[in-house]
Amino acid sequence: MLTRRQALAATALAALFVAPCARAQDRLKVIASFSILGDFMKNVGGDRVEVATLVGPNGNAHVYAPSPSDAKKVADAKLVFVNGLGFEGWLERAGGHDHDHDHGRADPHAWQSVANAKIYVANIRDALVAADPAGKDVYLANAAAYLAKLDALEREVREMIAKIPADRRRVITSHSAFGYFQDAYGVSFTAPQGVSTEAEASAKDVAAIIAQIKKQKAAAVFLENVTDPRLVEQIARETGAKVGGTLYSDALTDDKGDATTYIDLIRHNLRQLASALVS
Fold first, then answer.
1. Looking at the structure, do residues 15 and 150 belong to the same domain, yes or no?
2. Domain identity same for 30 and 103
3. DSSP 3-state assignment of 127?
4. Fewer CB near the last or first residue (10 Å), C or N of the chain?
5. In the listed set 119, 137, 158, which residue is the last one of a domain according to the structure?
6. Average pLDDT over residues 69-88
């Protein structure tokens, strides 16, 4: 049976068909709304696709504003892949839909569970096959090879988390981006902001987090590469909790960073957690 988060993940990724592929020898032009999704697409599409990403490395998709050049990229693409579940708030604003900022909205960060990442990959594979049937064998082979790597990554995550004492698996982050990781691997995450960084944490929220940390003795607080570090640094000062480093939540890093791919992102986060929580 699927958990609620798994069910959400299964419907999260959407492929918007813009135009059919003109000729089999053409590289299929595809758009990813953000960098993690773009990495999945590159692994499945290989040399048959040309991937452009709207929200690039270290970018915050929650507060992103499309540029005129982005509109041209979308117009020229054959497929546009988006995460959905409210992650691309700029899509909702463009369409005039209301959306709330409270902590109860659906969590769109499904990729934080490796099992869910496999659902993304399967959805991408199927969409590419539908748009470019001539490339079916390539897409199936690429997806199978990448899914095997994700299987190995899943085992790696579980083995490393098992080495962390259960009573130390409590951390603080900037916003609620790690709920799927928490559900899958048993590390408790608390954050002053909700699942989107569009809304600032209130003073009441921050005070509640500080009181909770003092009561539960969270082992560490972590920065994120897509959020302002000052809030977490304030919480660390007022509670005495150590800053465990930076976790990558919503975006890959550039070529100079530690998380240029999704697999690197998960491994980096694992190392950061293990280093802060085991010692």
1. yes
2. yes
3. helix
4. N
5. 158
6. 86
Total domains in the chain come to 2
Q: What is the dihedral of CA 153, 158, 182, 97, to 10 degrees?
A: 20
- Radius of gyration (C-alpha) of the chain in whole angstroms: 19
- The sign of the dihedral angle between the CA atoms of 41, 47, 50, 53 is positive
Task: Check pLDDT > 50 for residue 203.
Answer: yes
Structural domain ending residue among the three candidates 106, 132, 158:
158
Say which amino acid occupies 57.
P
For residues 98 and 16, membership in a common domain is answered with yes
Are 51 and 41 in contact by the 8 Å Cβ rule? The answer is yes
The whole domain housing 198 covers: 159-278
Residue 118 half-sphere exposure toward CB, CA atoms < 13 A: 14
pLDDT tens for each residue of 108-132:
999 999 999 999 999 999 999 999 9
